[in-house]
């Protein structure tokens, strides 16, 4: 019947998923098949980590509030927030 191929029972779907899982093989097989993708993913994660490290450590030095004490720094940052909300943004 035509509907048998379209509508399947949950039992048939479970067997299908089990067969697909068995076809994958072991973890080493999956790693070998996707070695290029995993290498690219690791490289991307490493580069993002390096970028974030330098963005955090060097990014604060270029701020006009760099080197100020707690209270003065808070006042400086508050003034920046007010300037941004008014549409006046200072870059340097």
From TrEMBL:
Transmembrane segments: 36-54
Keywords for the protein's UniProt record, in alphabetical order: Membrane, Transmembrane, Transmembrane helix
PANTHER family attached to this UniProt entry: EPHRIN-A3 PROTEIN
Protein name (database record): Hexosyltransferase
Organism whose genome encodes this protein: Brassica cretica
Source organism phylogeny: Eukaryota, Viridiplantae, Streptophyta, Embryophyta, Tracheophyta
């Amino acid at each position: 019947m035509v509907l048998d191929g379209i509508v399947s029972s949950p039992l048939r779907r479970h067997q299908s998923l089990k067969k697909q899982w068995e076809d994958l093989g072991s973890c080493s097989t999956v790693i070998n098949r996707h070695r290029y993708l995993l290498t690219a993913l690791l490289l991307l994660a490493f580069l993002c980590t390096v970028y974030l490290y330098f963005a955090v450590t060097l990014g604060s030095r270029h701020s006009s509030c760099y080197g100020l004490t707690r209270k003065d720094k808070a006042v400086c940052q508050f003034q920046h927030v007010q300037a941004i909300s008014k549409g006046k943004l200072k870059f340097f």
